[in-house]
Design goal:
The protein is of the alpha/beta class. The chain has one domain: 3-Layer(aba) Sandwich (Peroxisomal Thiolase, Chain A, domain 1). The protein has 13 helices and eleven strands. The strands form two sheets. Strands 3-2-4-7-1-8-11-10-9 form a nine-stranded mixed sheet. The chain has a two-stranded antiparallel sheet with strand order 5-6. β5 and β6 form a beta hairpin. α1 packs across α2 and α9 packs across α10. The longest helix has 16 residues. The protein is globular, with a radius of gyration of 20 Å.
Length: 423
């Protein structure tokens, strides 16, 4: 697909298609990796994921000289993983953050390679998000003292992500008439996709009724509106497009990146702008001009689904539909496999596993390679023969996928984004 360049001269067009993701890897998505006789630390899992990404790309330890990671006081640092794999680093950085990190670190990887500080960068995320530091304020996190900014939010009963985000979801329902049934369609779609994903934790397909009759967690969030908790590690490798052409897979080129764009306030984002408007409202003004494409050019999306509502709000504010029409967009079949623009074709955080966003990038890389790891048969040449039959237990490859968009989420006030294309 030819890429339009209908943008002004101030955008960084010279970086479009200059860098690529050349390797991806992950561990299994499990619950309880540290509770068995074969305990897996975040260090061990990260080493496994990075090694798998290197094998996927066809790279040796001596080919890697940069490493980036992100964590929330729940992971391992890059130099230890590099040392375990025999990698000597010319550049590394470990940053604090979660759901808005992957796309931002891809941008940083491009920057440090462009600056000549290294040549090939691995980005990883490793977390025991079920058996150790659980995101919802339970497990190891429950023992943490209340201090700093949490003194403000705890006083309002905002401890977990669901409690903090719920006012944005409720306001959207109030302002636009969005219904719980419409948004439940996100879980329905993602569960259909996960049923065709051999590595997904939850493979059972659900209905809208299943979602809205599951127990209430924090209004308007039912249990099935919420993501899973898993133990896992994931890794991706970024290098130049020129080098990518000599590696194992069809190049997946990076068109544009937005890294941790935020509303005028992050902590009390509702004080500046509508509470149901999220960071994507601002990020899209960077993403689409930098990428040289618009929402109408995108074949599939990866919209962060910590909750069903986060997917809907981001798709809306990045311009895939008009503000207030997100409920209709996610419930009319558009985001399902076989629809106009499938979303989270692996099942996402709601069904595959919770990875703070990096697995959604991995999934879209495989989609753009036309090699989603589903249940379709593998031919004598080792390539999967996709049937495009999306019934349960079948295919999840989007036919003729050329352009993808990923939208990361930390909270309503902060987000990141990425556009990739098949080279």
């Amino acid at each position: 697909m030819p890429m339009p360049d209908n943008v002004d001269a101030t955008t960084p067009k010279f970086l479009r298609d200059k860098y690529a993701i050349v390797g991806v890897g992950e561990t299994d998505y499990t619950r309880g990796s540290t509770q068995t006789t074969r305990a897996k630390s975040t260090r061990a899992m990260a080493t496994h994921a990075v090694k798998a990404a290197m094998a996927d790309a066809g790279l040796k330890a001596s080919d890697i000289d940069g490493m980036l990671s992100y964590q929330s006081n729940d992971s391992v640092f890059s130099p230890f993983v590099a040392g375990d794999l025999g990698i000597r680093l010319n550049f590394y950085m470990d940053v604090f953050g979660g759901g808005s990190s992957t796309e931002a670190l891809i941008g940083i990887a491009i920057g440090v390679i462009e600056a000549g500080m290294c040549k090939t960068v691995v980005i990883f995320r490793s977390m025991n998000g079920f058996s150790q530091v659980r995101i919802g304020g339970t497990g190891a996190r429950a023992a943490a003292p209340v201090s700093g900014d949490m003194l403000h939010s705890r006083s309002y009963g905002w401890q977990s992500a669901g409690q903090m985000f719920a006012p944005s979801f409720m306001r959207h329902m109030y302002d636009y008439g969005t219904t719980a049934e419409q948004v439940a369609a996100v879980r329905v779609a993602h569960s259909h996709h996960a049923s065709n994903n051999p590595k997904a934790l939850y493979k059972k397909r659900v209905t809208v009724e299943d979602v809205v009759t599951s127990r209430m967690i924090c209004k308007p969030l039912h249990l099935l509106d919420c993501c899973v908790e898993t133990d896992n590690a994931n890794a991706i490798i970024v290098t130049s497009a020129e080098r990518a052409r000599d590696l194992q897979h069809h190049p997946v080129l990076i068109r544009g990146v937005v890294g941790r764009c935020c509303k005028p306030r992050v902590d009390m984002h509702y004080q500046t702008g509508p509470i149901s408007t999220v960071a994507g409202h601002y990020a899209k003004e960077i993403l689409w001009p930098n990428a040289g494409v618009g929402p109408e050019d995108v074949d599939l999306t990866g919209s962060y689904d910590a909750f069903t509502f986060t997917t809907m709000l981001q798709l809306e504010d990045y311009g895939f539909c008009k503000k207030g029409e997100g409920g209709a967009y996610v419930s009319d079949g558009t985001i399902k496999l076989g629809g106009k623009r499938p979303n989270n074709t692996s099942g996402g955080h709601l069904c595959e596993g919770y990875t703070h966003g990096i697995a959604m990038v991995i999934e879209n890389v495989r989609q753009l390679r036309h090699d989603a790891d589903d249940s379709c048969p593998i031919g004598p040449d080792g390539k999967r023969r996709h049937t495009y039959d999306y019934r349960e237990g079948g295919c999840r490859q989007v036919k003729d996928a050329e352009v993808s968009a990923n939208m990361g989420w930390a909270m309503p006030g902060t987000g990141s984004a990425l556009v990739m294309r098949r080279g």
